[in-house]
């Protein structure tokens, strides 16, 4: 049977990425409280395609992801990528997987338990280093978390006789590290930087608490980004530390679904270790 | 050339709807301030398919919608539907079109102008009445508007020392009428029922105003639905009236993007004239 | 502490639905091959609100759903709804939960395994019957499945020298039953009605098979709906049967993402047992 | 009244972007056939925020965009950005606006007219150059177009007795240029690289034409990207040329909604002028 993908291509145009997108799969990820957590992921998987090949073999991406789905810790995610790179005979392999991540969180006064959902993701890249620079394999791994929070507007509070507009906001953090850290720790640190964290279950005494706590801690989107930025930069010296080794790179983004506008307020900062 | 769609079908199963969905088109709709407004719509167009036909002729839906796009007032929308019904040789024709609708709105204190966007829609159905009941053609026309608003939580305000959680909410109203009314009037009535309406441009003195106004007018999702319901039921006696003739049917839905939760609070009511 | 929600309301407007929407939770559902399957759901939970209450207690919905999440079979889903109704002191309770559902499926020739994802959902309603009609509790339970398939256009095949346009289509089925049935059986029956089912992993010999099989089984959206309709109507007499008792009600919808248009082709039919 | 945003910030963290997102507005853009076209846009507007300011003044972004909406050609878009930069007293300003763009396209045989919708966008950045490098202002302007097309799979065609799987695909092109070009020309060039372009209205003789044309021109996602890449690289020498000056940078992305899979096939390439 003809293998059209393997035939030579004469246009001499290398492709940076070829692969599959939107692959939905159940996956198991690390969970601080329970060891592992089963959730549902959406994956994109790619390799580079040298100029002389006409096409890639899409089925192999799925076969490999299928085999690794039962344990997608950071280490295994990179091993999966390395296997994609080898099996597809490429210099580079890329992957991302997005998944909802669930954490049990108790209400601040009543202690009522509920599960909170956070949209998280892994992104990775594995590539052969230039042989002139000693060769070998490089690995990049980035974790992203989106943390929904409350933000009370400092300006609205300062200028108004009573009340202050507040709203749901989303903080998206992406971090790159070579050491171990828990997603749960990043999330609870981000929540501590907001006017208040969110909860699934709040009884009336809890609602009183979160309303007052938020009003006493007003934050612009700009403030929120700066608070999270300052903490991530000093992640190893926080008490308790967020991770074993300093983050190599991170970005912080806050988007407030302004309750007085139809559009959102936005702030973004990025850090690269020197 | 074979006309497969026109061939007989032996399964004897009538289809309630066949047609096209997701047709994106620029359309012109009525605008109270400017006569007409050009916006962009997404249309679904259907007819019923009797049991003896194998398929419908999809291209005719698009041809007819194409011809009517330059004036999609209520009257023309129903005329378009009637032409769909006749050209497709069906007993019933259905259509819906969703579009963003823009209204200039000035800030409450500074008077600064800005455009607000509201997601609106038309739905229609045209059908032959049973000849035993005198025959003729029936027409149903429903307008929907989605109005983003601010809501301050009455419970949070009542139990907290200071502040009150508030958030962006969405009120969706669907109304059925045989007389004329302006979408703009429905929208501004809905905004008057909320803790406060939203604005595109707010200077600091406006922000003070909307913060205080909202705090003084707390509303649950339940309150919002009841306020809008009460007004729509008495639409002709409001001052100014919302429409010439009473609404035959309407529904009101409020969804608050709770600033203390990740999930939303929801309320819904429906009215049918006796 | 004031209980604002419990205060009387003087507007005398009953609300058909009040509750929470967009609650994301891990849930466990029945799985034919493995007993149970852990997936991630998005739930909406409502009760009716009589005219004399100002508001509902939103936290109770989440508390109850939290307790039931570990086993959301049909029976337990209705028990959960019944508890919602009682705890919220309402006449009616409604719920829907949507979730991706995963089934292992092997390629048709090579036998390579892969997981396929299907968007499924439960909807339920529990209500007190009118005491004049003997009282008691009524329960309605509806399952929905969305099955992605291939459809080859019969018209395109009939009129063209070679080839035929084909595309991904989505078939959405909703069924209401009082007896037991497997979601897996509905899904594989729907796939058998299409030009071909979809797969996660296809090697070249599989790709040859599915291409030829689809070309030999062209289907309009209209055909697909009629084939599924005919089968669901005779669900108990199919071999093997799809369910123990006939469906009380069902709807079938097919939407083809036409490869020659930007818009979709659509067909819909509905059945109610006499 | 206090101006909290203007107060000093002691955390010494500069923010790369602050501003507004999701601003929906009617806009007017250039149209080759009709001079201008009114459509609906969604805009994001940002500036950088130096470390010593606490916040930005969000209302100014909207005021400026409001003033420019009636003519968003490339030149005016950059002038708008330059005004944002100056009014917000920043070194950098960024903006993007996404909009559906409509082009009349006649069916290939019958000549029937219909409107096709393409998702397009502008992105821009204006910044002060380093005074050490001579100062002045730099401007970057990127146009993006998404072109839906048909792709027939070359492998499926080569190995199957008859037929070949095909599907809707999306080609996304982003180009950066300092000279003038028409979005319409990019779109029709991309369509010419696919197995076939899409149409809103196709009569039977047109359907025969597009089916056969597509079958005779099979394309992998990889092929499509390479064809478009080769053309954009030689944009000034095509006949007719796509633009006056060569593109400084571009990217090409193809995503096929595989009719035999639930996931998509993807290819991507990027070019920077030497």
UniProtKB/TrEMBL annotation, chains A, B, C, D:
Residues carrying the site annotation May be catalytically important: 153
Q: Which NCBIfam families does the record associate with it?
A: PRK13674.1-1
What name is this protein filed under? GTP cyclohydrolase FolE2
Q: Which reaction does it catalyse?
A: GTP + H2O = 7,8-dihydroneopterin 3'-triphosphate + formate + H(+)
List the molecular function annotations (GO) for this entry: GTP cyclohydrolase I activity
E.C. designation(s): 3.5.4.16
Q: In which pathway does it act?
A: Cofactor biosynthesis; 7,8-dihydroneopterin triphosphate biosynthesis; 7,8-dihydroneopterin triphosphate from GTP: step 1/1
For this UniProt record, the keywords arranged alphabetically read as follows: Hydrolase
Q: Which family does it belong to?
A: Belongs to the GTP cyclohydrolase IV family.
* Name of one Pfam family that matches: GCHY-1
What processes in GO biological process is this protein linked to?
tetrahydrofolate biosynthetic process
* Coiled-coil intervals, chain numbering: none
**Could you tell me the superkingdom of the organism this chain comes from?**
Bacteria
Gene designation: folE2
Q: InterPro entries recorded for this chain? A: GTP_cyclohydrolase_FolE2, GTP_cyclohydrolase_FolE2/MptA
What role is this protein assigned? Converts GTP to 7,8-dihydroneopterin triphosphate.
